[in-house]
Amino acid sequence: MVFLILPPLVGPTILFLVVYIAFKHVTRPKPIPDVPSLPAISFFGNGLDIAKHYKKTETIHDAFIDVLRKTGGMVLGQVLISAFTPILLTADPDQIDRILISQDWDRGIRSTGVFKPLIPHALLALSIDEEYKAHKRAFAFGVSSSFLKETSKRFIEEDHALIDTWSSQTGEWFDPEPELTYRQARAISAVVFGEPSNLIDKDLKTLFKTLSAGPLAPIKRMIEKVRPTNREAYKRIIQYVQSRTTISRKKFSEGGDVALIENMIDGIVQKEAESGVAVLSPDGLRDELVSMILAGDETSVTTQLWVLKFLSNHPAIQYKLRQHLLERVEPLDVRSPTVDDLTPEHTPFLEAVIQEVLRVGNPVAIIGREAMRDTTLVGPSGGKSFPAPKGTKILLLLGPEGTEGRVGKDTMEFKPERWLNEKGEYDSSAVWQASFAKGPRACYGSKQALISIRMFIVYISLTFFLEKPPPKLQSTRRVERVTLRPSDLVIKLKPWEKLEQGEN
Ligand code: HEM
Questions:
Q1: CA 21 → CA 6, 15, 402, distances in Å?
Q2: Which residues cross the membrane (predicted)?
Q3: How far is the CA of 161 from the centre of ligand 1 (A)?
Q4: Best substitution site from 110, 188, 299, 397 to test ligand 1's pocket, by max atoms within 8 Å of Cβ?
């Protein structure tokens, strides 16, 4: 009745106000109570802030660190991806360690989901369940010292070839990424499939786009997945995996030379032959083999790029490292180094350099965890426990940013010596770092990665001096792909003999 006696515009105005207030109420940002966050706007949460920061720094990781800094601490903060989706963040080493080793937390759907569209049956795409455990058991041979020693030869072959190629590029600034990508793809393909394959190298690059990170990742992934070029690349990779598996099965059924397991397919097929049943489902085997390439390729190339970045920025460390290696490793033209030559005990400074590259370069910068049951976290102010109900999501920022309390004010600086004790021995507990994660879901390939990076550094450091780049190219700014790579990286190589003879 009241509408009949009010002027005609009042009705619509009241209606508009009611709808507006209801909308504001529904879309009101809903952060997790008692966890500091930046002011969030209706509907978008902190999404616009994050997108702006991403545009400026090209990394989501740095945007999240910024949130933690602005909200007063590294132990626990949150970001609202939209008004409705708060995600907890931590960069605190104690908090990270507790979560990584606890059975209460696992990779949740957000983390496994990155890989699910492409390789749904691989470790990377699974939460810990029976399928996951069966895959872990099946691939246990891949971390045995005999397998690692055998496969280290594949990396050495590519290191030799890399040195040959780069020897013809001395004296000029160039981008090392294409050749490193090519070499690493060949080496890892030989480890997984028994032959260095260029097909994998090319198609992997294409497929990697379907795993892109960044704020619009889910949309980007959807678009990339249906692109004909990507579908073709996926098809070729699958055909390749199948053909290599057939070759391996034939070899075993004909009783060929199978005493020495030199690649992952042979490792699995040998188990099949011994037990008389399939160790993994066909899809499981296919996805796991592709995943080993995906997991091992990008991460290792990124680490090699950081090696080059830090070494070229730090000539004094190059001199020290070369001297260290000359004293402990046979000259490369006499014999290639072995896995046993390059242990933390025998070459402690080499190990210190690698661990510091991983710590500061921080290739896999963010990993996600989800509470599998009701549990607790250390609260934002530190010390007090904070409820984390089942389903709580948290991003662990693995870099050095949150380690000032443990490592010191210079934690962001590249200083390999911090890993050595007063006797010059390598001490793995001297500094905190978690580049390969820890606990039940730690990196499967960490041993292999370390072996291949040790070899790479030895070949580079004993052959070339890397010239210090001009100041504007010394920055350690990162760009985010699936991993965090150094931007602005170019290198200029000088053979040590020329340097020692004083030649330009
Ligand atoms: C420097 C090189 C590498 C780095 C920094 C690295 C880092 C990591 C990290 C941080 C994780 C844990 C991810 C998470 O929990 O969300 C991981 C998992 C994994 N990595 Fe690596 N990785 C490297 C090389 C490799 C290589 C060479 C391989 C294979 C040969 C590999 C295979 C895997 C697999 C299969 C997983 C999943 C393990 C699981 O979920 O149980 N990685 N890696």
A1: 21, 10, 41
A2: 6-23
A3: 26
A4: 299
Q: Ligand 1: which atom is nearest the Cα of residue 139?
A: 35
Protein residue with least CA distance to atom 24, ligand 1? 296
Residues 6+ apart with CB under 8 A from 42: 24, 27, 28, 29, 83
Q: Which residues surround ligand 1 with Cβ inside 6 Å?
A: 107, 111, 123-124, 291-292, 295-296, 299-300, 303, 363-364, 367, 435-437, 441, 443-445, 448-449
**What's the 361 CA to ligand 1 centre distance in angstroms?**
16
Residue 486, beta-bridge partner list: 478
Task: Please give the pLDDT value at position 30.
Answer: 84
Which one of 287, 443, 451 would you pick to mutate in the ligand 1 pocket, going by the greatest count of ligand atoms within 8 A of its CB? 443
Tens-place pLDDT, residues 482-494: 799 999 899 999 9
Distance 498 CA to ligand 1 centre (A): 39
Comparing 16-20, 391-395, 421-425, the range with the smallest average pLDDT is 16-20
Residue-level length of the chain: 504
- Asked whether 77 and 35 are in contact (CB, 8 A), the reply is yes
**How do the residues of the chain divide into helix, strand and coil, expressed in percent and rounded to 5?**
55, 10, 35
Residue 1 has pLDDT above 60, yes or no: no
Coil/strand/helix, residue 374? coil
Residue written as tokens 């996951």?
132
Look at the block and give the residue holding tokens 């690649």: 263
For residue 302, the ligand 1 atom closest to its alpha carbon is 1
> Which of 265-269, 275-279, 430-434 is least confident?
275-279
Question: Are the CB atoms for 430 and 437 separated by under 8 Å?
Answer: no
Question: What is the spatial distance between Cα 337 and Cα 354, in angstroms, rounded to a whole number?
Answer: 17
**pLDDT tens for residues 206-253?**
777 666 544 556 666 666 667 778 888 888 888 988 999 999 999 888
Closest residue by Cα to atom 7, ligand 1, is: 436
What is the residue with the minimal CA distance to atom 34 of ligand 1? 444
For 402-452, what is each residue's pLDDT tens digit? Answer: 999 899 999 999 999 999 999 999 999 999 999 999 999 999 999 999 999
Specify whether the CB–CB gap between 285 and 135 falls below 8 A.
Answer: no
The string of pLDDT tens digits covering residues 134-193 is: 999 999 999 999 999 999 999 999 999 999 999 999 999 999 999 999 999 899 999 999
CA nearest 197: which of 243, 152, 140, 139? Answer: 243
Question: How far does residue 296's CA lie from ligand 1's centre (Å)?
Answer: 7
Tokens in use for 160?
């030799």
Please check whether residue 429 is in contact with residue 97, taking contact to mean a CB–CB distance below 8 angstroms. no
